[in-house]
Amino acid sequence: MRRFPLPALLGSTICAVLLAGCGSPITAVGPTPPPPPDPTLSFQIGGPSRIDAAGVFSWEVFALYGGSGVYQYQWDVTHLGGPQAATRIPAGVTSEPRLSLLVSENVGNMLVRLTVTSGAQVRVGTFVVRNCIDGCVAGS
User: Fold this and answer.
1) Cβ distance 58 to 49 under 8 Å?
2) What is the pLDDT along the chain (140 residues), one digit of tens a residue?
């Protein structure tokens, strides 16, 4: 068996330990942290806020951000006056980010409400539409 002086042996052992430690993978200790939550769901509704002639008009979601990336939309229209309801195209929960309405002079002003659901998050936005086909009254 070969004998090495003690200082040489200590230097070799430390070097060997350091080399082995440098090449070893680092292992996490403890539970895995939970994934970050989905970003907060937010959106805006775009479309005409004043209608001056009868026809088909559309409102659409834009600046959609957050949630899980899969969205469902529910459009609701509340009539704030007028003897007749607007014809709704399409209706109910949908994967379409757009609402189209056939608006006539008899429809009156409307409140367009959109509920967006993504994962466990739900957000509601509203948009007021003035029907001025027969003229608008100041302040209405």
Assistant:
1) no
2) 556 555 554 555 444 444 445 555 666 678 888 888 889 999 999 999 999 999 999 999 988 899 988 899 999 888 887 666 655 555 566 778 999 988 888 888 889 999 999 999 999 999 999 999 988 865 55
Please state, as a whole number, how many other Cβ atoms lie within 10 Å of the Cβ of residue 118.
19
> Which residues fall within 8 angstroms of residue 132, CB to CB, at 6 or more apart?
50, 51, 52
The structure tokens listed for 57 are 């008009």
Q: How far apart are CA 138 and CA 115, in angstroms?
A: 30
User: Count of alpha carbons within 13 Å of 47, Cβ hemisphere only?
Assistant: 24
Give the global pTM.
0.67
- Cβ atoms of 50 and 103 within 8 Å: the answer is no
Whose tokens are 């109910």? That residue is: 92
Tell me the C-alpha to C-alpha distance, in Å, between residue 113 and each of 36, 70, 73, 136: 30, 20, 10, 22
